[in-house]
Amino acid sequence: MRRIGIDVGGTNTDAVLIAGSNVVRAVKTATTADVTGGILAALKALSRFPEVTGQPIDAVMIGTTHFINAVVQGRSLNRVGALRIGLPAGATLPPFCDWPPALADLVRGEVAMVEGGHDYDGRPFMPLDRAAVTAAAHRFAAAGLKAVAIASVFSPIDPSCETEAAEIVRTIIPDAAITCSHELGRIGLLERENAALMNAALAELARETVAAFEAAIAESGLKAPLYITQNDGTVMLAAHAMRQPVLSFASGATNSMRGAAFLSGIADAMVIDVGGTTTDIGQLRHGFPREANGVVEVGGVRTLFRMPDLLSIGLGGGSHVEADGDVVGPLSVGHRLTTEALVFGGSRLTTSDVAVAAGMLELGDRARVAHLDPALIGRMLARAHAMVEENVDRMKTDSAPLPLIAVGGGAFLVPDAVAGTSQVVRVTHGDCANAVGAAIAQVSGEIDQVFQGMGRTEAVAAATGLAQDRAVAAGADAATLQTIEVEDIPLAYLPGNALRVRVRVVGILGRRASRRRPPPAAPS
Amino acid sequence: MTVRTTPIPLEDIESLAVGAWILGTGGGGSPYLGLLNMRQLYAEGRQVSLMDPFDLADDDDVAVVSNMGAPLVGQERLTDSRTVARAVEIMERYQGRKFRAVMSLEIGGGNAIQPLMAAAHLGIPVVDADCMGRAFPEAQMTSFAIGDLQPWPLSMADCRGQEVIVARVTTWKWMERVSRKACVELGSVASTCKAPRTGREVKDWAIHHTTTKAIGLGRAVRAAQRRHSDPIAAILEAEGGLRLFAGKVSDIARRTTEGFLRGTATIEGLDGDRGARMEIAFQNEWAVAWRDGVPVATVPDLICVLDAVTGEAIGTETLRYGQRVAVVALPAPPILMTPKGLEHVGPRAFGYDIEFRSVFAPTAAE
Asked: S-Me-THD N-terminal domain: from which residue to which, for each copy (chain B) (predicted)?
């Protein structure tokens, strides 16, 4: 398999070509305001190498922060019709009730709440009020809404009310972009609904962005299917990812961690990705980032979907250095490093300047930092090392020393020995780890469901089977499936030894994407 | 008769949610949905007042409210303020008398806000008291049960219109068993109005001024967060608490037995506690803490596991590997520490063969 991985970051757009398990070429270009310009430039830079254009490319995988930035900055969002199924429960807490008012004002089109939904054990909660769904759809249509989010009580256990309502809405608004909450989230109605609302609000932007990505690939002369990378280190065909932009929110950081695992050949490790402004620290388990268990806030909205468990600290290659080296970050020159740092003739002392003065980094004009006091250099490096050590330890889950893989353009700030880790691993192409992670992404399937009246082993086996079905439906080669996460939580105050089981499996992308069929619905 | 009642500003309800979650000692359910309900109700122009328990007349009737059931189900069905109010109205109908005020069953966790939700609809004040002073898992673990007050009747409502009256039971434990079964049938979440109390009973047996206490605790945490000072220190100062341990969660074992979430959390020491280890056993709430195998704190003393940075409480359902935590003890209400109180809520009531000794007991008493 020959794949191109692209990571569109805030500062740089990186692209790599991977053949089998070798990184053939890697390039770094500046991210452009229109995003796709940077992608095209990266692809053109890559295409200058004969080994890139000589043979066909099987896939292009893009990781982007475009969608999460749109939410955080409150731009390019479309209005959404919100349909909640579950009355008479939850009537006092309607959709958007826990959103920051400014963001809610941008996204709230119409809100409708109707009877329906399920119980935790799969019993119907109330019969679905189809007439009310139809009426809601007519209201959405009259308001000119093209995006609809549907959330039903306990839909992760039985999604049938959401799918039936979606069919009704589609008959009335045939071109609607419909998001059903069970496709995104876990148990927790408001947070799952929030994820669905946010996803629906991104519908237009996602469509335009993916179309622009495809145009850029076509313009570069490549003929390969486009995949978008997801928060969990897996990919979706662009056509599918376009319908679920929220699932790519944190893919950049995940790609870095997956790339670190690939480049180092280490599957269980701590990873530190030092960028220009921030450093992300996470833990790799079986080659995948550990996931955040709980609620994740995006743009002030509580959401629940697959996100890596990361600690971000204000340390990077562009961080300001103050007070004789004792204070580092969180302010940073960011993408203005090449104009504001001392080595580039600027006036702002940054971590990169200190590293150049210390002979740790080749960048700009070393003569411009020759005057720096060695004591300052020592203090700044000691401060950065302390920040790294403390925060790596914070993210570790037990006391056993794990290797620490250091990647990213600012990896020089990571010392060669970090307490609590067995070794510090540096890898070739580590500064493009994110693009490498995108290129090697796999396909996943996940289930999160409550099982009753069966033992733990039986419940986990049942959940694993369902997750495998979903992975194959998403394009995974069934022969390569691997279970990477099993979590079971016994539930308080439920009869029959209720057990909530979450299982995630991954597999290598099958060559024939045409074998894809729609994801199976969870059984009721 | 005119009685002083004090309006509770929304700002104080925000603080109440933070403080109640700490007093929940790991259980009681998150107050978040209750808080959202109150924000909605206040936005509609409703307001709730707080009443001192000693301003109650002896023959006033007081409704004791709480939500019952699985927090997980609550996360899907969401908390509805009108259902809580309806549980109270069912009881009024059954008794043929109106309530003077409502009060909380437990000030720990989500149930701290339930009476405010009911009061907002009923137009009556909330008594500044509860009958646990924290959160506990079972009906007989209340100061009213310790006082041998009558355990019945109980009303229960679900959001679909089901209404249940438990007309008579012989003991508080029977009330726990019967009402729990009914709750499961309704989908494992319901609003309840417990056995009504007279003003005299509230004055004699309730744990007083706990709403004010929870608001004060939350205020202290939020002020420390705003100042970027240590919220744990603020909690200790506000409540006269003790810092038991600082560390990182290294293991969490959970299981459910008889419907309760039980298990043990292990915390590896950091900073001053480096090299030491704390184990905390829980039954919904934190029950016993051992330091290097030696019990250092037990129920009914409040054992609170808090986020080391924000000072916010961490529930037994949400605690996870790697979290940096501070374990603190807060003093228990005196009634829980009487010999009768310890029969209901001491370590042995939770199955631990350990003698209760408060971490706040003067060492000279040995």
From this structure: 11-167
Among B134, B111, B172, residue whose Cα is nearest residue B287: B134
> Residue B121 belongs to a domain with what CATH number?
3.40.1610.10
B255 and chain A in contact, CB less than 8 A: yes
Tell me which range, A354-358, A372-376, B164-168, B348-352, is most confidently predicted by mean pLDDT.
B164-168
Tell me the C-alpha distance between A419 and A393, whole Å: 8
Phi/psi of residue A507, each to 5°? -150, 165
Confidence (pLDDT) at A491: 64
pLDDT of residue A305: 75
Helix (H, G, I), strand (E, B) or coil at A371: coil
Q: What is the per-residue pLDDT for B314?
A: 93
Straight-line distance from the first to the last Cα atom of chain B, in angstroms, rounded to the nearest whole number: 50
Tell me: the pLDDT tens digits for A20-64?
888 999 998 877 777 788 888 999 888 888 877 778 888 899 998
Q: What string of DSSP letters covers B266-323? A: EEEE-GGGTT-EEEEEEESEEEEEEETTEEEEETTSEEEEEETTT--B--TTT--TT-
B188 in contact with A, Cβ within 8 Å? yes
Is the CB of residue B285 less than 8 Å from the CB of residue B136? yes
Does residue B163 sit in the same domain as residue B245?
no
What average pLDDT does range B6-34 have in this prediction?
Answer: 95
Mean pLDDT value across chain B? 93
Q: Tens digits of per-residue pLDDT, B46-57?
A: 999 999 999 999
Give the A-side interface with B, CB within 8 Å. Answer: 86, 88-93, 97-98, 117, 119-120, 125-126, 153-154, 187-190, 293-294, 394-399, 450, 489-495, 497-498, 500
pLDDT value of position A524? 36
Classify A281 as helix, strand or coil: strand
Closest CA to A336 of A278, A412, A276: A276
- Could you list the residue range(s) of the whole structural domain that residue B101 is in? 5-210
Interchain contact, B317 vs A492, CB within 8 Å: yes
Does residue B218 lie in a domain region? Answer: no
Instruction: Identify whether B363 is part of a domain.
Output: no
Q: Could you tell me if residue B254 is inside a domain? A: yes
d(CA A427, CA A266): 11
Q: Which of B72, B192, B285 to mutate to test the interface with A (most CBs of A within 10 A)?
A: B72
CATH number at residue B273: 2.40.390.10
Nearest-angstrom CA–CA distance, B87 and B99: 12
Angle (CA) B33-B35-B36 rounded to 5° is 65
Q: Is B240 left (phi over 0), alpha (psi -120 to 50) or beta?
A: left
Sign (positive or negative) of CA dihedral A364, A369, A374, A377? negative
CA–CA separation, A60 and A63 (whole Å): 10
Q: Which residues of B touch A491 (CB under 8 A)?
A: 70, 72, 256, 261
Distance CA B251, CA B279 (A): 9
Contact A92 B320 (CB under 8 A): no
Q: Are residues B253 and B144 in the same domain?
A: no
Domain count, chain B: 2
Q: pTM for the complete prediction?
A: 0.86
Percent with pLDDT over 90 in chain B: 81
What ipTM was assigned to the predicted interfaces of this complex? 0.90
What was the pLDDT predicted at B154?
98
Neighbours of A21 (CB within 10 A): 9
Report the share of chain B in percent with pLDDT over 70.
97
| Chain A, nearest residue to B266 by Cα | A398
- Which tens digit of pLDDT belongs to each residue from A249-298? 888 889 999 999 999 999 999 999 998 888 889 999 888 888 876 778 88
Regions of chain A where pLDDT drops below 50: 512-524
Question: Is there a domain that residue B222 lies in?
Answer: no
